[in-house]
Design goal:
mainly alpha; globular
Length: about 230
C-alpha cells in the first residue's frame, strides 16, 4: 500500500485573480490621474487665441470645435471658454447650436464612462463634489439634473459623472441636460458674440438669455424640492 502523502488540489480552493475588480481599479487609477493632470496642467487659451486657431481649419472648423468641446466636457476643464469662443467664431445662432451639440456629446460620454467605472470609482474621481452631487441626485433624477445644471458654481463634469454613477436613468439625464444646457450655453455664446460685435441684437440676447437662466433655475429648484418631498 502506498504511503505517499496526498497532494491537495490547491486550484479548487484558490479563487484566482479577480480580473474584473483589477481592471476596474486600474481604470479608476488611470482616470483619476488623467483628471488631475488635466485639471492642473491643461488650460485652454483665451477665447481670442482659440478663435484664431480654430479659424485656421477653414470650413471644417465647426467639426473641430464640436469635437474639442466634447473632449473638454469629459474633463474638469471649464467649458466656459469654449462657449464664449463659439460666439466669437460662429455668432449667436451657429455658435449656440455647435456648443450645445458639443457639450451634450461630451456629457453623454462622461455619463457612460461613469457607468462603466462604477459608483465607488466615481466617488473617488469626484472628490470634494461627491457628497454634494450624490445627496442632490437622490430621489429626484430629472429635477435634480436640471437644478445642478443651472445653479452657479457647480461645473458640468461632476453632474455628468455623478448621474452615471448614482442611478440616474439615461432618459432623465439626457432630457434634463437638453432643457437646462440650452439657455446656459446661449447666454455664454451670446457674450462671445457681443464681444466680437457689440450690437443691440447681441446685447438683447445676452440679457434675455440670462433672465431665462435665472427663471429656469428658480423653476428647477422648486420642482426638485417638490419631487424630493
Amino acid at each position: 500500500m502506498s504511503h505517499e502523502p496526498a497532494v491537495s488540489d490547491s486550484s479548487a480552493d484558490d479563487p484566482g485573480i479577480a480580473w474584473g475588480s483589477f481592471a476596474r481599479n486600474a481604470a479608476l487609477i488611470m482616470v483619476a490621474v488623467i483628471m488631475l493632470w488635466l485639471f492642473f496642467n491643461v488650460h485652454l487659451p483665451p477665447a481670442d487665441q482659440l478663435q484664431e486657431q480654430l479659424e485656421g481649419y477653414g470650413w471644417v472648423s465647426w467639426l473641430v470645435f464640436i469635437g474639442l468641446y466634447a473632449v473638454v466636457a469629459l474633463t474638469p476643464i471649464p467649458v466656459t471658454i469654449m462657449a464664449v469662443a463659439g460666439g466669437l467664431i460662429f455668432g449667436v445662432v451657429l455658435g449656440s447650436l455647435f456648443s450645445v451639440i458639443g457639450v451634450l456629446i461630451g456629457s453623454w460620454g462622461a455619463y457612460w464612462l461613469a457607468r462603466a467605472l462604477g459608483t465607488d470609482a466615481v466617488r473617488t474621481v469626484l472628490g470634494k463634489y461627491s457628497e454634494k452631487i450624490e445627496a442632490r441626485l437622490d430621489g429626484a433624477g430629472f429635477e435634480a439634473v436640471c437644478t445642478l445644471r443651472l445653479v452657479p458654481g457647480i461645473p458640468y463634469w461632476p453632474v455628468n459623472y455623478g448621474s452615471g454613477a448614482f442611478g440616474i436613468t439615461q432618459r432623465d439625464f439626457l432630457g434634463a441636460s437638453v432643457i437646462a444646457v440650452i439657455p446656459g450655453q446661449v447666454s455664454l455664446v451670446a457674450l462671445g458674440a457681443f464681444v466680437a460685435d457689440p450690437t443691440f441684437f447681441h446685447g438683447t440676447v445676452v440679457v434675455l438669455s440670462w433672465i431665462v437662466v435665472l427663471v429656469m433655475t428658480v423653476w428647477a429648484y422648486k420642482r426638485w424640492k417638490a419631487a424630493r418631498q
